[in-house]
What does this fold into?
Amino acid sequence: MDYLQYFDIFDEIDREEPPRKRKFYKKRFDPFTLEEKDFRMKYRFSKVYMRKIVKLVQRDIELQASGGGLSVELQVCTALRTWARQEVQDDAADIHGLSQQSITNICRRVALALASKAAQFICMPSTLEEQEQVVSGFKNICGFKQVIGAIDCTHIKIKKFGGDSAQYYINRKGFSSLNVQVVCDAQLKIRDIVAHWRGSTHDARIFRESQIRQRFENGEFHGRLLGDSGYGLTNYLFTPVQNPRTAKEKSYNKSHILTRNTIERCFGVWKQRFRCLLLGFSVSLENVKLYIVALAILHNIAIEMNEGIDFLEPVISEDNGDQQVLREGLDSRSGQETRRLFIETQF
It folds into this structure.
């Protein structure tokens, strides 16, 4: 039967391998081809700053060129644009000729490289000379002496997630967040950061269980912190006087507010540079914690390089006034006496 030969032909067709799908690479955009002004508007930083970051993380994120490996320059520019402009990852991917998954991988890769250098860029002044320099910076604001840092917490919005612990991330304002503790100096550099506490946690508890508190307890620093009324008064952390009566107490409070305002300005500038800190993250909780530390490092490098933010929209600092409750038992007796003597002799 001749028609049986057709079955043999069909078998041969079935055994043939399908044609190999050809890889297609999107055309990738080189950000450094932009004029300096356009580059700064789109990426929020100068080319000089970008090249410094590229050099800093180059060994950590360099990929092989074969197989479509991405250049370090493109990875750094992509990550910083995503964080600074709070762009949807799909949009950032289209702009740079990358896939959405590539953007996710790039941001994590760059953040890991930066976070590994946290000890180099986020640190309290160690030597006596460095501490005196920081103290002098605060004193120049309005004469408040012996201040080595201003401390406060800020909420970074995160996406909602399920599980038994989800409720503990909802802060007093009703949205899910991480409550991030920061100590800054008079130049708005972040000197210490704690970025893992859930949004419902009170500022005072975060400080009470932090390493920076233990370091002050151990007498590592020749100076003290300034905090708002949400913190307990101690020898090394001064808070405002509640219901000031004398002229000296009022003068102390005025000077305290003006000096401590550096931390509010620090938060404002930090969130102005990186809109994702202001508008929130939609990535995993693990990545949020990582990104916060990486962005603190980028903020400090920008300050060291005098990267201006005049062309950006101002950010109004959040009001933490409703943290100033339940003060009973927060203030130590030695702290009250130390502050009283300080006010009497300095104001």
The chain is about 50% helix and 10% strand.
